[in-house]
Amino acid sequence: MSYRLFAAIVVLALSLLSVQAQSGRRQVKPPPAAPVPTPTPEPTPVPKKAEKEPELLFFIGADRQDSFSSIPLGYDDAALRGCADRLRAASSASVETTDRSFNRGDAIKKAKSEAGSYVVLLTLKLDSMARSYDDLVLEFVVFAPGTAKVVTSGHSYLNSRRAGPVVVGPPSGTTSGLYREQLIQMAGEDAADRILKALHVNVDIPKSP
């Protein structure tokens, strides 16, 4: 055997032994990469609710036992309804009414006991020159809560298109009871408009059709 052949056989044998050794060795896998932490989003701040302005509060009563007690009770109800409905419609006011007779003394006592409600006293009157119920006048007085101080007062007449006490409408003595109740309700609405204006409530006053 020549030297070159012997050397080639030795090299081949060593190569086979090296391959077998490597194949028998267990390959160690590298450890998995650590997960990248996901940043936790900061909670979105909840917007604070705007503080609601205190609503106007009203308590309304009608003096049903005024000197002219012959006035139909339905007329007092119409004035009360007109005033209360307009106060609610023209502002965010909360309105409470009473269906019992409510005189000035009751109104003052009620106002002094109240923490936030304005007390409104409505009184239908006939003056000495009146010829019929067409000449009724609605008197209103508003008392401040706690003190019963008079905030505003005035008169409304049985026609929204009036110029002072002059009524522009059917001649006296010819108005039906139902139509007169509607006029009284409008007088109550007019009283509410005047009350809101006196309290400096900046609202769009709805107009009757």
What is the fold's blueprint, element by element?
Blueprint: H1 3-24, E1 57-62, H2 73-90, E2 94-101, H3 104-113, E3 117-125, E4 137-143, E5 150-157, H4 177-198
Parallel strand pairs: 1-2, 1-3
Antiparallel strand pairs: 3-4, 4-5
Helix pairs in contact: 2-4
Please provide a written account of the structure.
The chain has a domain at 57-198: Rossmann fold, CATH 3.40.50. It has a 5-stranded mixed β-sheet with strand order 2-1-3-4-5, sandwiched between helices. It is 34% helix and 18% strand. It has 209 residues and is of the alpha/beta class.
User: From the helix content, strand content and strand pairing, which structural class follows?
Assistant: alpha/beta
Strand fraction band? 15-25%
Shape: rod-shaped
What's the CATH C level of the domain at 57-198?
A: Alpha Beta
Runs in which pLDDT lies below 50 for 5 or more consecutive residues are: 160-174
Question: How would a textbook summarize the main sheet?
Answer: 5 strands, mixed
Secondary-structure element order, as H and E? HEHEHEEEH
Q: What is the total tally of β strands?
A: 5
CATH topology of the domain at 57-198: Rossmann fold
What topology, given as strand order, has the largest sheet?
Answer: 2-1-3-4-5
What's the architecture of the domain at 57-198 in CATH terms? 3-Layer(aba) Sandwich
Please give the radius of gyration in angstroms.
Answer: 45 Å
Helical content class: 25-40%
Mean pLDDT: 78
What is the straight-line distance between the termini? 132 Å
In DSSP terms (H or I, runs of 4 or more residues), the helix count works out at 4
